Amino acid sequence: MSEYRLPEEIRYSRDDEWVRESEGGLYTVGISDYAQQQLGDVVFVELPAPGTKFDAGQAFGVIESVKAVSDLCIPIAGEIIEVNASLEDAPETVNDDCYASGWLVTLRPSDPSQIGALMDATAYASYIADRSD
């Protein structure tokens, strides 16, 4: 699966979002390189207001590309602390650098143990390969 960047320190959901532990017990969420490549050129991102709470798997926003409109699903339950406001003016940042400047939200998890249910990079690479067959 060398055509997709899948950093080892990140956990992945079956909905193609990633989660990385940040500072102070917070977690950063974005979409995977696989997801952004499948979407194509991202032209719009709609994110929730800080303070909004979501259950794991719940839609928390929308991402629109030249090919499709897709829901964004939160990989672990928690409260949105911060959104990447720069995506409002530059949604293509998701395509340019989905794991750094193209992040979507930061959240405070309601149950940090949920991170353990997500896939590591190896498992996610297998999951992608199975879907592509």
Provide an overview of this structure.
By secondary structure, the chain is α+β, with helices and mostly antiparallel strands. The two termini are 13 Å apart. The chain is globular, with a radius of gyration of 14 Å. The chain has a single domain, classed as OB fold (Dihydrolipoamide Acetyltransferase, E2P) (Beta Barrel), CATH 2.40.50.100. It is 17% helix and 32% strand. The relative contact order is 0.25.
Q: Which strand order do you get reading across the main beta sheet?
A: 1-2-3-9-8-5
What is the total tally of β strands?
A: 9
The mean pLDDT is 96
> Structurally, how many domains make up the residues?
1
- What would you report as the Rg, rounded to the nearest angstrom? 14 Å
Q: Main sheet? A: 6 strands, antiparallel
Q: Helical segment tally?
A: 3
Any idea of the CATH topology?
OB fold (Dihydrolipoamide Acetyltransferase, E2P)
Q: Give the end-to-end Cα distance, rounded to a whole number of Å.
A: 13 Å
Q: Can you tell me the residue ranges where pLDDT is under 50 for at least 5 consecutive residues?
A: none
Which term fits the overall shape? globular
Helical percentage: 10-25%
CATH architecture: Beta Barrel
CATH class: Mainly Beta
CATH 4th-level superfamily: RNA polymerase II/Efflux pump adaptor protein, barrel-sandwich hybrid domain
The helix-and-strand class reads: alpha+beta
| SSE arrangement, N to C | EEEHEEEEEHEH
Strand-residue proportion = 25-35%
